[in-house]
Amino acid sequence: MIINPKRIRTLKKGTVDKGPVVYWMSREQRVEDNWALLTAQQKALELEQPLIVVFCLTGDYLGAVKRHYSFLLAGLKELPVELKTYNISFTLLIGDPPDTLPFFLGQENCALLVTDFDPLRTKRVWKKKIAAAHPRTILEVDAHNIVPCWFASDKREYAAYTLRPKINRLLDEFLTDFPPLVKHPYGTGLDNLAGVNIEAFLEDIPARGVSEISWMKPGEKAARSSLASFLIDGLSQYDQNRNDPCQDGQSNLSPYLHYGHLSPQRVAFQVQKHPILPELKKGFLEELIIRRELADNFCFYCKYYDSFEAFPDWAKNSFNEHRSDKRPYLYTSEEFEHAATHDPLWNACQVDLAVRGKLHGYLRMYWAKKILEWTSAPEEAQNIAIYLNDKFSLDGRDPNGYSGIAWSIGGVHDRAWKARPVFGKIRYMNSNGCRRKFDVDRFVRKF
Ligand code: FAD
Ligand code: FO1
User: Fold this and answer.
1) Residue nearest to atom 13 of ligand 2 (CA)
2) Residue 413 CA to ligand 1 centre (angstroms)
3) What burial class does residue 25 get, using C-beta atoms within 10 Å of its C-beta: 0-12 exposed, 13-18 middle, 19+ buried?
4) CA–CA distance, 369 with 375 (Å, rounded to integer)
5) Where exactly does CATH 3.40.50.620 map onto the chain?
6) Pairwise CA distance, residues 375 & 378, whole Å
7) Which residues, other chains included, contact 322 with Cβ-Cβ below 8 Å and sequence gap of 6+?
8) Is the CB of 68 within 6 Å of ligand 2?
9) Nearest ligand atom owner, CA of 238
10) Residue of 116, 108, 119 lying closest to 23 (CA atoms)
11) C-alpha 392 – ligand 1 centre gap (Å)
12) Whole-number Å distance between alpha carbons of 402 and 385
């Protein structure tokens, strides 16, 4: 099995002892096409030891509600069964990882810990605490980015045009097919299905007035079949339809990518192999590879990705000059949440987000920019947008969300435009711009 060592970095150099290798799974909740699982298996084979996959289920992850947990848990339920066919054990621990994982690792006499990469703060704090409590070596594998985040660039990138050439010149090396997972020769005797009652855990998660989703099937199998349908029906039309919210022109893969039910590299590999003209794939690959990996770069190198601090200096200075500008409307977080603004298009966006759990990509920008226009300060706008996105969006609580909001509201990855009231030098957008792109009234009527 060949795994590019550039995907792997050592989080802690500790001792490696006799005992099982543990893969602490978090961002990549799948069995296939998972570089972190493959790395853990490779290490276990070298050490001639069993392999255990552990997922730590925490009840209050970045404001997630029942909608998100029920999607995540449906996917998680597939894992023990699938892993058993490879003679790999699976354990679910309930509680924050720093409170539960070190004890489990000690109890099982874990020889080596492998985990998946995630640039978000919560995960980085968890990993720091676990490294302090656990004496063994800890490896982190970037199984999300096609070009490992730390290898693509060693600094925060200014915009897509600065990251694009760095990624493009490394794609031949990293955009490969995956080796298969093999049936593991050393078992643990642990029962993959023992212990936790997922239904009881879910019962205790609050819905907070947000309904569950039925239009999208969760899990690794559903994700693969969704990708297959997109390759047959959606890809060739993507460029033509993707900016029209009245068409179903996007791939709808973001929830699968967010929960790790699907590997971005698998998607890119299949798209690259697809026999349609390269021009028809270009737009999709730009979003899937460059924009997505730019978001991870942003959250990895900018610690305060969800605050005013993250905005470029030109945007912060410009906002400071426009703080006392009169706003045309002012709404509270509750009014936004209840889609109670004067603007039928904005309200329709919010209803779509609240009911379906996924707002069309083009409208996400409009939705965020109007929150900026109708609140008294950019900090407040950013907080409200993050709160609503994370509460309602199935794919929220993701680097793409923090980066998309910082882009729309704070000019991150964008340039300065001609100054205007409230927005300062931030790129402006209004409903007339939307009218030029799609049938706004038809979209509003839908909601
Ligand atoms: P497609 O158009 O089919 O694109 C395929 C994939 O490319 C997506 O799944 C995603 O991984 C990636 N991608 C597409 N557009 C972007 C982008 N602008 N930035 C980064 N990656 C991109 N994306 C999320 O995954 N979660 C969020 O919470 C989120 N919040 C956003 C908030 C705002 C204000 C904005 C402007 C954008 C946000 N995005 C978010 C980015 C983008 O809108 C979504 O990724 C996309 O609409 C998801 O739908 P899709 O999978 O059908 O996309
Ligand atoms: N990751 C975990 O390791 N444990 C969890 O209990 C957990 C819950 C959760 C709920 C909603 C959600 O959107 C994400 C959740 N994640 C959890 C993290 C997730 O898998 C992603 O890694 C990050 O949010 C994206 O970077």
Assistant:
1) 397
2) 15
3) buried
4) 10
5) 5-143
6) 7
7) 419, 421, 422, 423, 424
8) yes
9) 1
10) 116
11) 15
12) 9
Q: Would you state the structure tokens that stand for residue 393, as one six-digit string? A: 């969006």
Tell which CATH classification among 3.20.20.70, 1.25.40.80, 1.10.287.110, 1.20.82.10 matches the domain 145-180+220-301.
1.25.40.80
- Walk along the chain (447 residues) in steps of 10 and give the mean pLDDT of each run: 93 90 98 98 97 96 96 96 96 96 96 98 98 97 98 98 98 97 94 79 94 97 98 96 94 98 98 95 98 99 98 98 98 98 98 97 97 98 98 98 98 98 97 94 93
Give CA separation, 242 vs 286, 315, 360, 372, 401, in Å.
Answer: 13, 29, 9, 25, 18
From the CA of 390, give the closest atom in ligand 2: 13
What is the CATH number assigned to the segment(s) 5-143?
A: 3.40.50.620
Measured distance CA(258)–CA(404) in Å, rounded: 14
Residue with tokens 């009231």: 421
| C-beta neighbour count of 15 within 10 angstroms | 9
The answer to pTM > 0.90 is yes
Ligand that lies nearest to the alpha carbon of residue 59, given by its number in the listed order = 2
Encoded tokens for 379 = 């900090």
Q: Which residues of 408-433 are buried (b: 16+ CB within 10 A; e: fewer)?
A: bbbbbbbeeeeeeebbbbbebbeeee
Alpha carbon of 60 to ligand 1 centroid (Å): 23
Number of the ligand closest to the Cα of 58? 2
List of residues 6+ apart from 260 with CB closer than 8 A: 25, 27, 28, 29, 30, 34, 116, 143, 144
**Tokens standing for residue 194:** 């023992």
**Residue 259 beta carbon below 6 angstroms from any ligand 2 atom:** yes
Ligand showing the shortest atom-to-Cα distance for residue 62 = 2
Contact (Cβ atoms closer than 8 angstroms) between residue 379 and residue 308: yes
Q: Does domain 308-446 have CATH number 1.10.579.10?
A: yes
Pocket probe mutation, ligand 1, options 360, 395, 398, 403, max atoms within 8 Å of Cβ:
395
* Closest atom, ligand 2, to C-alpha of 396: 13
Task: Measure 212 CA to ligand 2 centroid, in angstroms.
Answer: 17
Q: Do 261 and 369 meet the contact criterion of CB atoms below 8 Å apart?
A: no
Ligand 2 geometric centre to CA of 28 (Å): 9
